[in-house]
Amino acid sequence: MKRDEKKHSETNRFVLYEDNYGKKKIDVELPLTSTVDIEELANDLGLPTCVDKSYLPMRRAIVALWACQNAHKLHEMFPDKITKRISKRPISALLFGGGAVKIYCSCANVIKGPCCRHLKDVDFIVAKKQGIEFYKLLLRLGDLFGSEYIHFETGGDRSFGFQRHGTRYRIRTIDEVDENGIPKVGVMDIFCDEIDLRHKVKVKEEFKNPKETFYTIGMENMILSKCQFIMDLPASDLPRLEKAGQAFRVLKYNHLPNRLVIGMEEKDTSDVCAILLDHPIGHGREEIDPTKMARVLRKDKKFAVTCRLNLQNVYDHPEILKGFGLTKAQVSTVEDRVGILLKAIPVVNAQWDKPWWNTQVETPKIFD
Question: For a FRET experiment, which of 29, 128, 169, 275 has its CA 20 to 30 Å from that of 196?
Fold first, then answer.
């Protein structure tokens, strides 16, 4: 592994975290360091060359993925830093969310190109049986590869994981560095076995051969994970939605009394469009397979309703697609492919008069 450590002449310490009682403090020396060649790691993983590595979260994800694939031999590669083997085999951690979209979609990486958006963080899912190994590995990345990749836990993070009995973890890491070189710490959730939000997206087959899907949950699951989002608001909030430029998110469902049903955020709509723009419908590795999506949704009618409402909303708002920088021809391509998916996934004639989704999850703010 080629070393490409950042040079710097002046250093100082910066506190990333300190608890209220001063018993725990996490600090780093500035400027941050990296002791790896990200391009070399990405090539070793077999990632597409289009991936924009200017984002710290993406570089962090690549380092984590490479470390996972070598988890069983890191103690041999770094004997001065790791004395015991972390895992008996590679750890099958997978990306989802915006980071996964950037791996699969060239259009999501071209600056000022269609569907390219700023990447604030990355999302991981891992098999529950390897969850604690993955968590412990993340805690070692800063020591192994440089302070850019530091991960740490707080007392609250430990309690979070303990209460969920290995189904989900929470860890702190650096999401970005400002123009003055000051790190910004963010929280990263680690899901295990399934993405359990408004609806459940179960990931099982992709764990078996992560390289086949470029260490992501796969395009079909990516679309499902975006289209699982749904919430409701009082009907009286419509003027506020319009003022905030969010009225396009109102889904065509008229059976919740005095409520508006709200779909995907703009960033999620953009990600879905990126996938549909760059990949045709079909059954190959680089194609979106509607039968996979249909198979999932036939088993979960509530999820099927939500997914269909969100996809229909994309189809019904070509003006939003144009706002992502798509040409007329590109808008037509996305619309055609959404249409194919809508024909493939099951139709559920639901008239539920109360939320059919999980309401016990954090809801993103629309209004300040």
Answer: 275
Residue 152 DSSP SS3 = strand
Per the CB < 8 A criterion, the answer to whether 307 and 137 are in contact is no
In a domain, residue 62? The reply is yes
358 found inside a domain: no
Does residue 302 share a domain with residue 222?
A: yes
Task: Please enumerate in sequence order all residues whose Cβ is within 8 A of that of 342, keeping only pairs 6 or more positions apart, or say none.
Answer: 308, 311, 312, 315
Per-residue pLDDT of the chain (368 residues; tens, 9 = 90+): 544 444 444 458 999 999 876 678 999 999 999 999 999 999 999 999 999 999 999 999 999 999 999 999 999 999 999 999 999 999 999 999 999 999 999 999 988 778 999 999 999 999 999 999 999 999 999 999 999 999 999 999 999 999 999 999 999 999 999 999 999 999 999 999 999 999 999 998 999 999 999 999 999 999 999 999 999 999 999 999 999 999 999 999 999 999 999 999 999 999 999 999 999 999 988 999 999 999 999 999 999 999 999 999 999 999 999 989 899 999 999 999 999 999 999 999 989 999 999 999 988 888 87
Residue 182 to residue 184: CA distance in whole angstroms = 7
Q: Which domain holds residue 163?
A: 12-200
Regarding whether 157 and 57 lie in a shared domain, the answer is: yes
Whether residue 279 sits in one domain with residue 175:
no
Residue 185: inside a domain? yes
Same domain, 57 and 180: yes
What are the distances in angstroms from CA 152 to CA 158, 213, 286, 349?
A: 10, 28, 36, 47
Residues 196, 234 within the same domain: no
Give the sheet arrangement for strand 183-192, strand by strand.
Answer: 94-96, 123-126, 183-192, 168-177, 151-152
Residues 124 and 223 grouped into a single domain: no
- Written as one string, the DSSP assignment of 48-102 is -TT--TTSHHHHHHHHHHHHHHTTTTHHHH-TTT--S-S-SS----EEETHHHHH
